[in-house]
Amino acid sequence: MIRKAKLSEIAEIHELTQACGKEMANRGIFQWNESYPSKSVLKTDILRGELYLLENPNDLLGIIALTTLVDPEYEDVVWLTPNQNNLYVHRLAVAPPYQGKGYAQNLMSFGEAFARKGNYTSIRLDTFSQNPRNQKFYEQRGYTRLGNVYFPNQSDYPFYCYELVL
């Protein structure tokens, strides 16, 4: 089941993101760290009603943030569609024991259905340049790779921007 996250679940959600960060680091991908995603960022997602959880009756399996807020880093990207009526995906994460079982696909399908239902023009996101698995994941879903953005608090390496026109 996918539903909106609650403030009371921040600790569990943050634990999931920290576990994902450690799992990526174990694979040589230093994308998430102790400062990102922070509890503060997750709290803001929840207060805005933009953080969704994928769960089964016993466990939190994954999360996805769906927002209309444009990160300032995205301003210089040459997107495929005008900068209006776009949905942005952030913080897609699946708990390490559940990775490779299709849950990220489920979360993205939810996000894409949400965008279509909301009549958004496109879905935009970024993924770490040092994470080829994620790049392949989005490209197989039909996303087009565009420009690069940088998040210096996370890495010196760029993040690749992607867009799916709906």
Describe it.
This protein has helices spanning 10-26, 39-47, 103-117, 132-140; strands at 2-4, 51-55, 60-67, 86-94, 122-128, 144-149, 159-165. The chain has 166 residues and is an alpha+beta fold. It is built from 4 helices and 7 strands. It is globular and about 40 Å long. It has a 7-stranded mixed beta sheet, with helices on both faces. Helix 3 links the parallel strand 4 and strand 5.
What is the level-2 CATH architecture name?
3-Layer(aba) Sandwich
Distance between the termini: 24 Å
Shape: globular
Number of helices: 4
The CATH homologous superfamily corresponds to Gcn5-related N-acetyltransferase (GNAT)
In the CATH scheme, the class would be Alpha Beta
The SS-based structural class is alpha+beta
For this structure, the CATH topology is Aminopeptidase
- Which parts are unreliable, with pLDDT below 50 for 5 consecutive residues or more? none
Biggest sheet: strands, sense, closure? 7 strands, mixed
Could you tell me the mean pLDDT? Answer: 95
Strand content: 25-35%
Strands, total number: 7
The value of Rg in angstroms is 15 Å
- Assembly state: single chain
Helical content (DSSP H or I, runs of 4+): 25-40%
The side-by-side strand order for the widest beta sheet comes to 1-2-3-4-5-7-6
Q: What count of structural domains?
A: 1
- Order of SSEs: EHHEEEHEHEE
